[in-house]
Design brief:
This protein is mostly helical and 80 residues long. Helices cover 62% and strands 0% of the residues.
Length: 80
């Protein structure tokens, strides 16, 4: 399972997505994620992946795929 698929699954499990099919192109605005939801998602991702993710970074990435790329880049930085 790719990081994009894992994050899509985490979002589906933790937030009401009205049964929508989530993909890498799904953006947080279309899911109507406000700043509080982004804070909550940041905490979930930080706990799940062991890297510091902030709500500001999530707002900048905007999509599930870009968030996955951020998580992957931070994870690689830890192993170097």
């Amino acid at each position: 399972m790719t990081t994009t698929q894992q994050i899509s699954a985490l979002i589906g499990e933790n937030f009401d997505t009205d049964g929508r099919e989530l993909s890498g192109a799904t953006d947080f605005e279309s899911l109507e994620f406000d700043s509080l939801v982004l804070v909550e998602l940041a905490v979930i991702l930080t706990r799940e992946y062991g890297v510091e993710i902030t709500d500001e970074e999530l707002a900048e990435t905007g999509t599930i795929e870009a968030t996955a790329a951020l998580v992957n880049s931070k994870s690689r930085a830890l192993t170097v």
